[in-house]
Amino acid sequence: MALVGLGATGCAIGTLLAAREDCVLVGAVDQRPDTIGRDLSEFLGLDRLGIAVTSDLGALPATDLAVVATTSDLDRVAQTVIPLLERSINVVSICEQLAYPWESHPQIAKQLDAVAREHGVTVVGTGANPGVLMDTLPMLMSVLTRQVNRVVIRRRTNMSRYGAILSKFGLGLEPTAFAAARNSGQVIGHVGFEQAIGALAAGLGWELDTIVVYDVEPSVVSDRRRQGAHTVIEPGAIAAVTHRARGLRSGDAVIDLEIVFGFFDAEDEVQPGDEYLIEGDDQLITLASNHGFESFLSTVAAAANVATAVVDAPAGLHSMGELPVLAMASKGARIRQAVHR
């Protein structure tokens, strides 16, 4: 395995992979000047690994898989992924737009698929959402009903473990600054609604009229200081935002998604939690979590757990729904069993 991108999420994925018996870290790439030349172990909290961080993708040694954890922008991520594929390296990326890019970025999707097939490797975009929580999970739940009519998902997720990614949500800004940043395109909210809705609709066999992504809105202004792993929310600053999206079919909102992203406090009216509703012909299927699926930990786990599934998958660009459930759920156990036989 090689790591490309040593931000908070990339390092957490690396730490998880380093603890597995079926994975060996062999290289790391990061573009920040203060990381270059340092031993990877410094960023993962491990004993010395003897792996010097480089800024050059071409300096990576031969490896089965690269985990790319850099940006949400697929145009930029493709510039990293394509050279890796051309070296016959399988790729897992947490770029949200890579989770299901066939409709949102058709030309890039076609190029990635072609290059991966040409070199006999696989590329998959994954994470908590998109990747699992708003696409693959409800797709799997839909197996329990004869015919799905509507999917409604409400998430309230803790963002206090994240670092640089928080800027796109406007968390920590005062309301006036938030409005200005949103109007200028600096605050965009969640990236990945289009991909999650596209993947879910494709899995359910639905052809949608359109996907509507609404503007992100402030939902909690903090009256106290809130400390995150990498960021502090001061009193008077925005501690939570709400973002919504819908997939319309024949004018009806057949996929209805809403997420509240925030630094939650025990005294807030809004608390972490997730609710799912699959409206079927024969029954309503519901799933609820009082604490919610923790986005940071879930993203880290998803990226690590698909690693061996991606290496074993057919060549090309694939979505999470196309990977075998057993291969992802086993967390490398199937490979360990094969090696020990």
Automatic annotation (TrEMBL):
Domain 2,4-diaminopentanoate dehydrogenase C-terminal positions: 133-329
A Pfam family hit: DAP_DH_C
Gene3D superfamilies the UniProt entry points to: NAD(P)-binding Rossmann-like Domain
Protein name in the entry: Dihydrodipicolinate reductase
Annotated organism of origin: Prauserella endophytica
